[in-house]
Amino acid sequence: MHNTIENFIGHTPLVRLKRIPSETSNTILAKLEGNNPAGSVKDRPAYSMIMRAQQRGDIRPGDTLIEATSGNTGIALAMAAAILGYRMILVMPENLSLERRQVMSAYGAEIVLTPKEGSMELARDTAEQLCNAGKGIILDQFSNPDNPLAHYETTAPEIWQDTAGTVTHFVSSMGTTGTIMGCARYFREQEQKVEIIGVQPQENAQIPGIRKWPEAYLPKIYQPELVDRILLVSQQEAEEMARRLAREEGLFTGISSGGALAAALKVSAQVQNAVIVFIVCDRGDRYLSTGVFPS
């Protein structure tokens, strides 16, 4: 019996950085989530949210689903909807990269653009308005427990297994916070203490996939007590590290992954004999039109 495409979500590589860490007693490992079928860490929660809602009877194939997205979740949901037979409406700010919109459309999703001045907050409000108008059902990655559950059941156990339980520090960019919440809960249950480090943008930094939400929009799935500390990264740090990952490690990643590495290196400078894992959320080809990777 041959596998179908959803069977290849997860089980992504965990690779050691060789050049960027320079002389150190620490091991820095990158979890390559761009290797998922739709190219990001969001494949896990996207499939989880639709499949579990279907199993509960909340939705059925042919229904229309709605989600506000800054890109990767939208692409992953568009793929999952195509696999499982749903119509998908994605609401996103107009200034997000053209590549993302094109990929969502390729999977058959309908895209609703909101003015860039309103950022993701306006996109979320618009999705609510569409839902209230009877246009479809919102999955709501920001409050849906099936989002962090996907990482609790798959991402974190994979890291634990691939490090033979030796991981000491886990570094993850924070957007919806699903990845860091699910992984933190799993690592908390293990005997060895794993320090959980969240990554947020410095004031005025616009790093796709990393957010510091206003209080009113804070994801309901977020539990601050599960995060040991939060490190801030600048736009320049995130972009430069993304370029260095490609040039020095052969890893072509997105900008939020550069931010996560910048934070991981800050952690590494403070500890010894540590095993530091950071999440590479997606691939760099989603950001070519942004000018981050000079031609």
From TrEMBL:
InterPro entries: Cys_synth, Cys_Synth/Cystath_Beta-Synth, CysM, P-phosphate_BS, TrpB-like_PALP, TrpB-like_PALP_sf. Its EC number is 2.5.1.47. It comes from the Bacteria. Residues 6-282 form the Tryptophan synthase beta chain-like PALP domain. One of its GO terms (molecular function) is lyase activity. Its cofactor is pyridoxal 5'-phosphate. One of its GO terms (biological process) is cysteine biosynthetic process from serine. Pfam families: PALP (PF00291). Keywords: Amino-acid biosynthesis, Cysteine biosynthesis, Lyase, Pyridoxal phosphate, Transferase. Pathway: Amino-acid biosynthesis; L-cysteine biosynthesis; L-cysteine from L-serine: step 2/2. It catalyses: O-acetyl-L-serine + hydrogen sulfide = L-cysteine + acetate. The modification N6-(pyridoxal phosphate)lysine is found at K42. Pyridoxal 5'-phosphate binds at N72, G175, T176, T177, G178, T179, S256. PROSITE patterns: CYS_SYNTHASE (PS00901). The keyword Amino-acid biosynthesis applies. Belongs to the cysteine synthase/cystathionine beta-synthase family. This is Cysteine synthase.
